[in-house]
Amino acid sequence: MPALFAFLHHVAAFALVSAIAIEFVLIRHELGLKNARALLVTDAVAGASAGAVLVVGLLRVFFFEKGAAYYFHSVPFLAKLTLFVLVALISIYPTREFLSWRKGLKEGRAPDVDERKRRIVRSCLHAELALIALLILSAALMARGVGYAG
């Protein structure tokens, strides 16, 4: 069972990173109906993946791996959790922007997004990817027992 949950955790994490990378590419192109709709779907996939990463990860911590006492005394684990929360908070701006397009898209209108908003969304997505790189570093350190204070 632990191997299954490790697998699910990794699949969800890869889906999350892939979705954010796809959003980063899509927002750089013209925001026609097709790209705007793709951004909405991709953002929903990112949100679902993030939820799965969190739920499966917490199940692993509390039920399938070394136990919560171990993880909550691990500096890299705490860093990983903090970085995950930061990524989630940063993702709010792009998600709100994408969701604001829904009504127009249903009416067949492409979103009219000024360059300033596009730049902010791109910056948010770039920051999410950079923080995820640090999160992966924290995961590698955690797996090696670095920073365990127990």
The overall average pLDDT, rounded, is 95
In N-to-C order, the SSE pattern is HHHHHH
In percent, how helical is the residue content? over 70%
Structural class: mainly alpha
Question: Main sheet?
Answer: none
Secondary structure tally: strands: 0
Task: Describe the protein.
There is one protein chain. This protein is 81% helix and 0% strand. It is mainly alpha-helical and 150 residues long. It has six helices and no strands. The chain is elongated. The protein has helices at 2-28, 33-64, 68-71, 75-99, 102-106, 115-143. It has one domain (2-143).
Element layout with pairings:
Blueprint: H1 2-28, H2 33-64, H3 68-71, H4 75-99, H5 102-106, H6 115-143
Name some characteristics of this structure:
mainly alpha
Short précis:
By secondary structure, this protein is an all-alpha fold. The chain has helices at residues 2-28, 33-64, 68-71, 75-99, 102-106, 115-143.
